[in-house]
Every structure is written in structure tokens, then in C-alpha cells.
Design brief:
- The chain is about 50% helix and about 15% strand.
- Helix 2 packs antiparallel against helix 3.
- It has one domain.
- The protein is built from six helices and four strands, in the order αααβαββααβ.
- The protein has a four-stranded antiparallel sheet with strand order 1-4-3-2, sandwiched between helices.
- A hairpin with a 2-residue loop joins strand 2 and strand 3.
- The protein is an alpha+beta fold.
- It binds heme C.
Length: about 220
């Protein structure tokens, strides 16, 4: 075997190994969730409930750290708990749940192709003034023969968000330092009031796994 072929092979073996590791991580309480299938209408109701509860919980957590005007304490606390709260909701509900963004701070919040196109659509709708507080989006998709309801609720920025997601002049120095040290790839800055900052994304199965009958 030529040297370059050998190298290509070891790279693909490494990639395969990495891939199976991440698949394993996902199947063990990662983002995927093994919650029960629901009829479409109930899946939509459930998505709206989970999304509202999840956003409240994040907001409560943030407020609990924001007791005095100290943004360093706030961002330290919030940064530690954001993913924990997300995981707790996945464990509780059994469903796929994420906060995603086109310009994300934490790579764990990177969008998949479906989420990417929905977020791009939200940007356009927002420019036309169509993203109101009540707006949300849902669609039935099919993946590997299984139907899902994909639900997304856009999150827009208000003035308070700019302390950590705004421009150079909005973000306090201590927060800048924290971001540099903890999120070296951070792309979640330079937003303005009324931007689409991201979305809550939920995915609920509508049919049983392939080959398995629906449990009654
Ligand atoms: C005190 C600082 C702070 C404030 C204020 C803040 N955020 Fe964030 N935000 C963060 C941090 C830190 C993360 C990364 C959390 C993680 O690790 O998942 C984040 C992540 C996010 C994400 C997930 C996508 C990503 O970029 O990783 C969204 C969506 C988001 N914030 C929206 C908002 C909105 C909307 C507001 C205002 C209502 C807001 N944030 C206010 C610090 C803040």
C-alpha cells in the first residue's frame, strides 16, 4: 500500500472511531432522546410547553445570578448551568432539545441542517417584522422512515442581552475577559436589539421506530 493510501486509511479509521464515540455519547442521554411518539397535535402542544418551561427555567437561573449589577458573577453562573438545565430537560422529557444559533457561543449549540435553514428563514421573517412574541414554527419531517415534529421557537434580543451578546461598547470588560477565556471561538456577539439571537429547537417522534409497532 502506498504511503498516502495508508495515511488516508488511518485517517478514516480515526474518523470512524470518533464518529462511533460521538454516536455513543448521543445515544447515552445526549441530544437525541428516546421519548414516546405522540400524535401530531399533542406533539405540538408538548413542544410549546417544553419550550416555554425551558425558557423560563433559563431565565430564572440567569436572574438568580444577576442579584447585583455584577455581570461577571452572572455570566460565570449562567455559563455553568445553561447546558445542565438543557440536559435536565432532555432527561425529564425524553425528547431532543437544544438552543441553537447561526452564530453560536458554545459549539454544543451548533444547528443541524434543518435548524440552519429555519434560522435563516427567521432572519428574513424578522426583517419583514413577522417574528412577534407568539411566533413559532413546526413541520413534519421524515428521517430514516420515522416521522418527527420539528418545532422551533425564535429567541430575539432585548437590551439586557447585549451585555453579553452586543457590540464592543455594550459588553463590560470583565465579561469580555470571561468570554475570551471560556469561549475562544465565540461568534455570539455584535447582536442588536430585535435580532434573532437563536431558537429553541425540539423534535418529537410521531411514529414508532422502524419495525416496532406503536405502544398503546
Ligand atoms: C450574563 C451574560 C449573558 C446574557 C445577559 C445573555 N446571555 Fe445568552 N449566552 C450566554 C452564554 C455564556 C452562553 C453560552 C451558554 C452555553 O454554554 O450553552 C449563551 C448562549 C445563548 C444562546 C445559545 C446559542 C449560543 O450562542 O451558544 C442563546 C440562543 C442565547 N444565549 C440567547 C440570549 C438572549 C435572547 C438573551 C437576552 C434575553 C441572552 N442570551 C442574554 C451569556 C449571556
Amino acid at each position: 500500500m502506498s504511503k498516502s493510501k495508508k495515511m488516508a486509511m488511518s485517517i478514516s479509521i480515526a474518523a470512524l472511531f470518533w464518529f462511533s464515540l460521538s454516536a455513543l455519547a448521543l445515544s447515552q442521554g445526549g441530544e437525541m432522546g428516546g421519548g414516546p411518539p405522540l400524535p401530531e397535535k399533542e406533539a405540538l402542544k408538548k413542544s410549546r410547553e417544553i419550550s416555554a418551561d425551558f425558557s423560563n427555567e433559563l431565565q430564572n437561573s440567569f436572574s438568580s445570578f444577576m442579584t447585583e449589577e455584577n455581570y461577571l458573577i452572572a455570566i460565570e453562573g449562567y455559563s455553568n448551568t445553561a447546558q445542565q438545565i438543557t440536559q435536565a430537560f432532555r432527561d425529564q422529557t425524553g425528547y431532543y432539545l437544544k438552543r441553537v444559533s447561526l452564530r453560536y457561543r458554545n459549539p454544543a449549540n451548533a444547528p443541524d441542517p434543518y435548524e440552519k435553514s429555519a434560522l435563516t428563514r427567521f432572519e428574513t421573517l424578522n426583517k419583514a417584522g413577522k417574528i412577534t412574541g407568539r411566533y413559532d414554527s413546526y413541520e413534519v419531517t421524515v428521517e430514516k422512515g420515522r416521522k418527527y415534529l420539528r418545532y422551533m421557537k425564535p429567541l430575539t434580543t432585548d437590551k439586557a442581552c447585549l451585555k453579553c451578546h452586543g457590540g464592543k461598547n455594550d459588553i463590560p470588560e470583565e465579561v469580555k475577559g470571561f468570554l475570551k477565556a471560556n469561549y475562544p471561538q465565540d461568534a455570539a456577539m455584535d447582536f442588536r436589539v430585535g435580532s434573532v439571537r437563536g431558537a429553541v429547537s425540539i423534535k418529537i417522534p410521531l411514529t414508532a421506530e422502524k419495525g416496532k409497532p406503536l405502544k398503546k
